[in-house]
From TrEMBL:
GO terms for cellular component: Golgi membrane. Keywords: Glycosyltransferase, Golgi apparatus, Membrane, Transferase. It holds the Pfam family Gly_transf_sug. It is found in: Golgi apparatus membrane. PANTHER family: ALPHA1,4-GALACTOSYLTRANSFERASE 1-RELATED, LACTOSYLCERAMIDE 4-ALPHA-GALACTOSYLTRANSFERASE ALPHA- 1,4-GALACTOSYLTRANSFERASE. The keyword Transferase applies. This is Alpha 1,4-glycosyltransferase domain-containing protein. It is a single-pass type II membrane protein. One of its GO terms (molecular function) is alpha-1,4-N-acetylgalactosaminyltransferase activity.
Length: 344
């Protein structure tokens, strides 16, 4: 009996030791993970946008805004290329990339492109708070109503709303994360501009994927856009506060019906299609098909910016070995991202 009793005690002690060892191992694993997270964060996270020195913001800065807020979302190599191209082509301009909430940075430590982007001294990766970003703009009280937070298109709507808020507040150049920069902004003589996206019979559209505001005339136009959002916003309508709103307000601002007849008014320039949208959305595949390489490069040779139509093309990854137009452009305008990715 004594032997059996002692054996039971030994077994219990053994089980406790195993449990202690297992718990200790798990603790050490996750403790070291957390330390690595903090170490990576120290490299990646600069701070909130509100802590960025104002002189970095107001000197004709270039803005990107990421409003996706899902637990598994990471930016793609193409989006990293868009960011790098803006910094690479404009070494004397500050490129500010804004991410919705600080918690997104915890996931971004796994993003392989960060270390390449941070080699550029003019790239600033920042998180933001919506209320802080819309403070001192006409959106300040309206955003607190919660209209946008209840929208099924929250990510898209926030993207539109916040670009207007940033340009109203700071001026500068806003770019979507699927826009490759080709020309330095200082080589473009116009201080306020957007690009014609579509010009069809009885239908014209100005897209806000490329939008520059640099003086009071441009700021007045942005104010009109914000007022239009506040007056007409319907959370159930996906596209109403994007290109449709930009087009409508510009026609009112310029008092015109045809952007081809009047391409500039009140110091705001409507750039022709080939400057930003040389390849239209329904032909997005031309950037990624070898048979279209020459045509795509010829079409974009006079472009200032190239829109890659991420909404249509995001699932279509391309090997770097392919001789497609996007690879040619990436190798030239986002060399670090191109060099360090086998697939884009």
């Amino acid at each position: 009996m004594k032997f059996i009793f002692n054996r039971k005690i030994l077994i219990l002690i053994g089980i406790k030791l195993l449990l202690f060892y297992g718990i200790h191992k798990v603790y050490r694993k996750y403790s070291s993970e957390w330390e690595r997270c903090k170490a990576n964060s120290a490299i990646i996270i600069e701070d909130s946008f509100s802590d960025l020195p104002r002189e970095k913001i107001i000197n004709d800065a270039i803005f990107f805004i990421e409003t996706t807020n899902s637990t598994d979302h990471q930016l793609t190599a193409r989006q990293a290329c868009a960011i790098e191209s803006a910094a690479y082509v404009n070494p004397n301009k500050e490129v500010i990339v804004l991410f919705l909430t600080a918690s997104n940075y915890i996931r971004l430590r796994h993003w392989p492109h960060f270390k390449h982007l941070l080699k550029y001294k003019n790239i600033h990766l920042r998180y933001f708070n919506i209320n802080d970003l819309t403070a001192d703009t006409p959106f300040e009280e309206w955003i607190e109503t919660g209209y946008v937070s209840n929208s099924p298109y929250q990510t898209s709507h926030l993207s539109d709303i916040l670009r207007y808020a940033v340009l109203y507040k700071y001026s500068g150049l806003y770019l979507d994360l699927d826009v490759i920069t080709i020309k330095p902004i200082d080589s473009i003589k116009h201080k306020n501009f957007a690009c014609l996206e579509e010009n069809r019979k009885r239908f014209q559209s100005i897209n806000g994927a490329v939008l520059r505001v640099s003086d009071q005339n441009g700021r007045l136009l942005i104010h009109m856009m914000i007022d239009q959002v506040i007056k007409t916003y319907d959370s159930r309508k996906h596209w109403d506060i994007g290109p449709r709103l930009v087009t409508k307000v510009l026609k009112e601002y310029c008092e015109i019906d045809d952007f081809l007849k009047t391409t500039e008014c009140k110091n705001f320039k409507i750039l022709p299609i080939e400057k930003c949208y040389a390849i239209e959305g329904y032909e997005w595949y031309k950037f990624y098909r070898e048979s279209d390489t020459k045509l795509a490069l010829k079409s974009t040779k006079d472009s200032y910016y190239i829109h890659l139509w991420n909404y249509q093309s995001s699932k279509n990854k391309i090997s770097k070995s392919k001789n497609v137009a996007f690879n040619v452009l990436a190798s030239k305008y986002c060399p670090l991202v191109y060099e360090n990715n086998d697939e884009l």
